Amino acid sequence: MYFNTPSRRTIRLTRRGRIALIAAGAALAGAAVAVPLLSGGEEEAARPTSLVIPEGWRASQVYAAVDKALALRPGSTKKSLEKLDLKLPEDAEGNPEGYLFPATYPLERDGKKATPDTLLSAMVDTANKKFSGAPIAAGAQRNALNVYQAVTIASIVQAEAADKADMGKVARVVFNRLERGMPLQMDSTINYALNRSTLRTTDADTRIESPYNSYQRMGLPPTPIANPGEDAMRAAISPAAGDWLYFVTVKPGDTRFTADYAEHQRNVAEFNAQQKSARPQPTK
After folding, report:
1. Pick from 106, 126, 129: which is nearest to 47 by CA?
2. If phi over 0 gives left and psi between -120 and 50 gives alpha, with beta otherwise, what is residue 29?
3. Using an 8 Å Cβ cutoff, are 174 and 180 in contact?
4. DSSP designation for 47
5. 248 in helix, strand or coil?
6. Beta-bridge partner residues of 254
7. How far, in Å, CA of 113 to CA of 126, rounded?
8. How many CB atoms sit inside 10 A of residue 87's CB?
9. Which ranges of 41-108 would DSSP assign to H, the alpha helix?
10. What is the pLDDT of residues 4-52, one digit of tens each?
């Protein structure tokens, strides 16, 4: 047996300080736009001309951003999926999660205004161009994966890595745990199942019934959990060399990777102490 799972009160594989980044991304909600200052009055100047999809956004965030950018009723873009024929891999089973590629998309082209159909199709087409090239396909095959599985790993890397420099190491942790028959135990998959973003995963959270509960389920989640960018994708097909099984971002800029569980416990204890000291103390 490669791994004896200790009490879930003490083990947390991945806990990162990304709350500020998540909050900033949520505030954008698709309003990251280029605004031309042309004649035509304030109304024309305020109209967005492009939609920015940041790396790591979930499909639900993309749908909401499209609704907002196109001034549509909330839920319109998601509902439009029912009649769209997106060019997704067979494994996706019609779910575009992971294939709404992060980039900047114009809201008008050749005099025609964008629609949910044109925007989502452009995102999927861009993802297919990025992911279907020989380097990605060969890299996935080299790691005994198909491209969809590689995108799934990239989405976890995107969600978990504190910064670009850590992506290759996070990918290696994923591969090492899979190769050893260990559950991934990624808090990001729990957050996806519960449609939230938080650093605090409780024991009850790790017991939820969900195919995305990587504490209870072995292997990869059934779909990507976000829409990864090119850096995360490169890390997924070319992970760094190392024997790491655990990691924790103790504080911004200080992510610690280890293969030793006792060392990981000490790092997590330091992380918890940092979190506790950062919380506002109740007034007496």
Report:
1. 106
2. left
3. no
4. S
5. strand
6. 251
7. 19
8. 11
9. 41-46, 59-69, 76-80
10. 333 333 344 454 433 323 333 443 444 444 433 334 445 555 678 999 9
Amino acid at 39: S
CA–CA distance, 85 with 124 (Å, rounded to integer): 11
Which pLDDT tens digit goes with each residue over 144-190? 999 999 999 999 999 999 999 999 999 999 999 999 999 999 999 99
b/e code 159-172 from CB counts within 10 Å (16+ = b): bbbbeeebbbbbbb
What's the whole-model pTM score? Answer: 0.83
Dist CA 202 CA 8 (whole Å): 9
- 280 Cβ contact list (under 8 Å, min separation 6): none
Q: What share of the chain is helix, strand, coil (3-state, %, to 5)?
A: 45, 5, 45
Q: Are 35 and 48 in contact (CB under 8 A)?
A: yes
CA distance between the termini of the chain: 51
User: How many CB atoms lie under 10 A from the CB of residue 49?
Assistant: 14
Sequence spans of domains, the chain: 23-131, 134-278
Tell me how long the chain is.
Answer: 284
Please choose, from the candidates 142, 133, 139, 167, the residue with its C-alpha nearest in 3D space to the C-alpha of residue 56: 167
143 burial level (CB within 10 Å; 0-12, 13-18, 19+): middle
Contact 63, 78 (CB under 8 A): yes
